[in-house]
Amino acid sequence: MLVGGDLGFLSSLVVAAFMAVFGSVSSFMVRWKWRRSVARRDEIKRCESLKEEDEVFVETPASSATISTSYSGSFN
């Protein structure tokens, strides 16, 4: 079978360009996900430490336990 042109250099150039673009995008995605996971882990640690500190001082006032269920409207 006859081939119309040299596939060596052009195909190597296309593969190299694809690898450069794909490598850049994939490394960006991995770095972005890694930073988000570290930020989430830090947020969880921060919330847990605040939660432990707040549990000692949290008290529920007696007046907030009563709930009014009266309604003065009319239903049609």
From TrEMBL:
Protein name per Swiss-Prot or TrEMBL: Transmembrane protein
Residues spanning the membrane: 12-32
Keywords: Membrane, Transmembrane, Transmembrane helix
